[in-house]
């Protein structure tokens, strides 16, 4: 087994101490894994650009068929779609952005880093697996362990009634010493059954199964990320399908012929008329290839003294090769929904406008949205099980049912166009400006949204504090002014009532009784 075809040797797993019904499931899964192994390895080679050249033996000499020609279109077919399927967190109703504590579990399992790998593996091999189990915190594992595995390291049995896996087997660890020699011997395998897990460990005496470990779940906590699945193929289809591989083979042969033609193109082609085969400076005959690339030819006259004539032949053109490559790029574009310009082949029309680019990528955007929907169903089920394992029975069932997956917009609009669209919506529906969803639509990821909302809460708290301080100051000033007015009215009222009389009597004029004295 070569280093680029390293896969675990699952067929060697025959554990002792395993219940009979579990052994039947293992036999079924091992057979399924073995049947798909060759094709999965083949697709890995095409993705890595290590596929063997299929030489037709007509235009390319056998001595030159060993030249490596790499066409990276299969990897482009996978990566172009994977780059548009971008996870952006889980969302739920209510004010709490993380009501079930999922962020802590995802962070402990490097979910943001591992999930894109699983998505690429799913697009490459048709499916990948997401596994969930309770962790052993005593050995440093998270409370809940999330494991991602490709189709080379996991397999399962599909249940059509429940539209989920009935059983699954996942390689958790391998023998590092054997792996350095290109031999992958599993040392730790986990068998998932409804309600319990069984750990299978490799020992000197062979593989030994542990006692069943209850999970508290009535289903298998392994979810299938299947690309382009249907009723007949629940495990999906690979982006590197037969058409993509066939076009890649043709493109590799075209590139090889182009390289060989370029070598001939760089050497002048000449014809000798009326001469024996040319010889080198030592008088040894020169073959056709050596004569074509030689810089020194010795051509003698014949016995009659007639010298041969040399004619320069017109050079070959590279146009047929480039035209064929352009045709193959167009076929690849049709098979993968990737614009030709993204495949390294420019069209004759020159650079495209923004609208033309968007129209050319529309089919890829639709495929990305469908992929997000398919993967989102499985990830939502995973998130609900994480919430149950972490919170137990103390959980809001209605809020749990509303849990959903948030994806980045596969269309990837520019910031300016996105902001312009949001502004028009807010003008039409003003209350949208108060929603956190607007921040998601503007392209902010979950971490930035959390920071922005935290900053907003601080600003709101500061504004409320300033408002309370201002109100208290105004109230104190009002009370001081009121006291001053009250004191002023108390000093002037006695002077208004003369003779110690209250009221308006003090304003009356004195009465003259004829003696000139006042009464």
Describe this structure as you would to a colleague:
A hairpin with a 2-residue loop joins strand 6 and strand 7. The radius of gyration is 41 Å and the shape is flat. The protein has 14 helices and 13 strands. Helix 2 packs across helix 4 and helix 6 runs antiparallel to helix 8. The chain has about 525 residues and is an alpha+beta fold. The termini are far apart.
Question: Features of this protein?
Answer:
single chain, 519 residues, alpha+beta, six-stranded antiparallel sheet
Would you count the extended β strands for me? 13
Main sheet: strands, sense, barrel: 6 strands, antiparallel
**What sequence of helices (H) and strands (E) makes up the elements?**
HHEHHEEEEHEEEEEHEHEHHHHEHHH
Please state the overall shape, judged from the principal axes of the Cα atoms.
Answer: flat
Q: What are the SSEs and their pairings?
A:
Layout: H1 20-48, H2 73-82, E1 87-91, H3 102-108, H4 111-125, E2 127-134, E3 144-150, E4 154-159, E5 164-174, H5 176-179, E6 186-193, E7 196-203, E8 206-209, E9 213-214, E10 222-226, H6 242-266, E11 269-273, H7 288-293, E12 309-313, H8 319-336, H9 354-360, H10 362-391, H11 397-401, E13 404-407, H12 415-428, H13 437-441, H14 446-496
Antiparallel strand pairs: 1-13, 2-3, 2-10, 4-5, 5-6, 6-7, 7-8, 7-9, 11-12
Task: Briefly say what this structure is.
The protein has 519 residues and is an alpha+beta fold.
